[in-house]
Amino acid sequence: MVEKIPISFRKEVSEIPSTTYGTFAIYKYPAKFIPQVIAFVIKKYAKPGMKIFDPFAGYGTVGVVSKAYGYNYIMWDLNPIINLIHDVATIDEIKLNVSVLLKDIRDSQKKFIPEWSNLDYWFPKEFLPMLSKAWGYVYSLPKKQHQVLLIPLLKVTRYFSYSDEKVHKLYKSKHSKEKVNNLLKNDWREEFYRRLGKEINLLVKRVEEYSHLNHKQVESTIESGKDIFDLKLNQKVDILVTSPPYLQAQEYIRSTKLELFWLGYKENQIKGLSKKEIPYRQVERIKIYSPTYHIYRDKIKEPHLIELYERYFHSILKIFTDLGENVKRYMCIFVGPAKIRNFSIPIDDIVIEHLQKFGWNHRVTYIDTIVSRNMFQSKINPASGLEDERIKTENLVVLERIN
Ligand SMILES: C[S@@+](CC[C@H](N)C(=O)[O-])C[C@H]1O[C@@H](n2cnc3c(N)ncnc32)[C@H](O)[C@@H]1O
To answer: Considering only Cβ atoms within 10 Å of each terminal Cβ, which end of the chain, N or C, has fewer?
Structure first.
């Protein structure tokens, strides 16, 4: 019998005092790892000199944590926002005079407007000249200087839009319309600069906090904005640790669309990325060795849910099988027990059963209880249209290569 061990990753790693410590949460990203999960894997399974790899890296938590512990890393993600978050989250220090900077922005004549046909739907016309000026000024600075300002500016830009802060997806709600109306009734220009200053100071503090973890000089590679099916891992890595996309509607590109437009991406680029997201795209069929996969497949009746289910597993199982060939020691896969209709799908068992055919031994599954994760806030499951029960636990499956 393989062990299933209850765990609280947060409690296991005392040197990271909270999930938002340092630069581990400088920007919201759906389904982001808490840093303690990666720190736990590294402390338990990594040996000095090993290389860590996350093929679905999202925010890039694996990189930020690996650097703190002195491990080289490789990260991939479809979402190009990873580069910005990673580069800022692992920066050595930020030197800025915030009041001079805010004055320079106010006085600036520079302009930047994203090429987004829906811009007027997401921003009241009153705010656009001010936003355009701030972005124009920031982009006029040399890259090293402008990069550290992008995250504070993105946060404030999102606040000054009709998007609902509480929802990951870009969504105009009653609450967010009220937010904009309240801003318009008051001195919103002052509020904009006040918030921008506050966000810059917060980032400076976070970077300083991260430096207390004594992060090391390590080698890192990031492949972003590319579909995982187009990438090849052309070197050996020691540990793969990742959380694959979720089975049910978690549209990562759509969630960061507003950000991508202001970062200069064009409509066709963003649409192109959205179309590649797992599980919303066509995939090559593979032979699936998990009996559990087939049992659950036969329980689903609705054609669109069958399609979702099949696309999901054909995608992630193919990826883990192929990438596994270049993983020397461990694959650590973090999954939530998602639901389709009213039954839970044991993603972890399906992954284990399939990979056992390819020389992987199931060593242990750690079971953590989710304390609070934004991604589960939506009550209606968009895949089924039914009310969703909250996922209560997440499982870290540890597979070890059989020599
Ligand atoms: C569960 S999230 C990973 C979150 C990450 N663990 C973190 O700490 O932020 C899954 C990721 O898979 C990515 N993804 C989805 N489809 C993809 C594809 N076809 N190619 C590459 N990445 C993809 C999404 O952009 C998303 O960032």
So the answer is: N
Q: How far is the CA of 39 from the centre of ligand 1 (A)?
A: 19
SS3 assignment for the chain:
CCEEEEECHHHHCCCCCCCCCCCCCCCCCCCCCCHHHHHHHHHHHCCCCCEEEECCCCCCHHHHHHHHHCCEEEEEECCCHHHHHHHHHCCCCCCCCHHHHHHHHHHCCCCCCCCCCCHHHHCCCCCHHHHHHHHHHHHHCCHHHHHHHHHHHHHHHHHCCCECCCCCCCCECHHHHHHHHHHHHCCHHHHHHHHHHHHHHHHHHHHHHHHCCCCCCCCEEEEECCCHHHCCCCCCEEEEEECCCCCCCCCHHHHCHHHHHHCCCCHHHHHHHHCCCCCCCCCCCCCCCCHHHHHHHHHCCCHHHHHHHHHHHHHHHHHHHHHHCCEEEEEEEEECCCEECCEECCHHHHHHHHHHCCCEEEEEEEEEECCCCHHHCCCEECCCCEECCCCCEEEEEEEEECC
Q: What is the pTM of this model?
A: 0.94
Question: Is residue 376 predicted with pLDDT exceeding 70?
Answer: no
Rounded to the nearest angstrom, the distance between the alpha carbon of 46 and the centre of ligand 1 is 23
Our answer on whether the CB atom of 32 is closer than 6 Å to any ligand 1 atom is yes
Q: Is the CB of 288 under 6 A from ligand 1?
A: no
* Ligand 1 close to Cβ of residue 116 (< 6 A): no
Q: Is the CB of 77 under 6 A from ligand 1?
A: yes
pLDDT tens, residue by residue, 212-224: 999 889 999 999 9
Please report the pLDDT score of residue 337 as a whole number: 67
Ligand 1 nearest-atom number relative to CA 253: 25
pLDDT in tens, 138-187: 999 998 889 999 999 999 999 999 999 888 788 999 999 999 999 999 99
Delineate the domains of the chain, giving CATH numbers in brackets: 3-90+215-401 (3.40.50.150), 98-211 (no CATH)
Return the best residue to mutate from 78, 246, 248, 284 for the ligand 1 pocket (most ligand atoms within 8 A of CB).
78
Ligand 1 centre distance from Cα of residue 77 (Å): 6
Atom nearest to 242 CA in ligand 1: 6
Whether ligand 1 lies within 6 angstroms of the CB of 33 is answered as yes
Query: Is there an atom of ligand 1 within 6 Å of 245 CB?
Result: yes
